[in-house]
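If your schedule permits, I should be very grateful for your opinion on a structural question. I would ask you to consider whether the tokens describe a fold that such a sequence might reasonably adopt. Thank you for your consideration; the sequence and its tokens are set out here.
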Amino acid sequence: MTNRNKVSRIAGLLYLGVVLTGIFSLMYVPSKLINHENARLTFQNLKASETLFRSGIASGLLCYIFFLFLPLVLYRLFREINENMAKLMVILALISVPMYFLNVQNELNVLSLLKVPGSFEGYNPAQIQSQALAYISQYDNGMRLVHIFSGLWLFPFGYLVYKSDFLPKVFGILLMLGCFGYLINFFGGILISNYKELGISSYISMPASLGEIGICLWLLIIGAKEKNKKLQNENTIGRF
């Protein structure tokens, strides 16, 4: 039980790293710098806050380095519950890691455009600005594909949490619902041209956010609290 608590806290620490670096790189930095409707403004923001943009890239890389190890630690925690589901969880999670590292090349291409104006002789400023925004759009499209597996791994993860006797079942339910939320948002964005304008994506992704942040904090702070059924039975017998 002590070993399980130790493993759960390592998982919680890794998960916290994923959550914090993910929020910074995927939410905070784009909200400050990127305007998909205005290439000129976006380029100006990137030039003025290049350090913030570089920090966002570094934070994203750290996020997926943490995520590389997280499912491996979780496998140790859950393999005794259902080894096949634990293996599926690891496979689905790890697929997203090389996909992300390939996709981040688009952000590095943006850095090339910010470096030295003479490197792109023959291109006018408007063309360079449009190219920078095009790379950012390609990065965003790549992240949509990455998020397919960011969602899929939550189902076996949630199932294992639900089946365990040392973690709250509510987190398992939220994680499994979060899997479907990711998939709905992905296919909604493909099939419906104005899906973002509908304003429902944030509500659909809420179970995943609540489940992931909740299980992260529970693993880190409380750990794996398994009930000692044998002791409970002995105490019950002792009362008679």
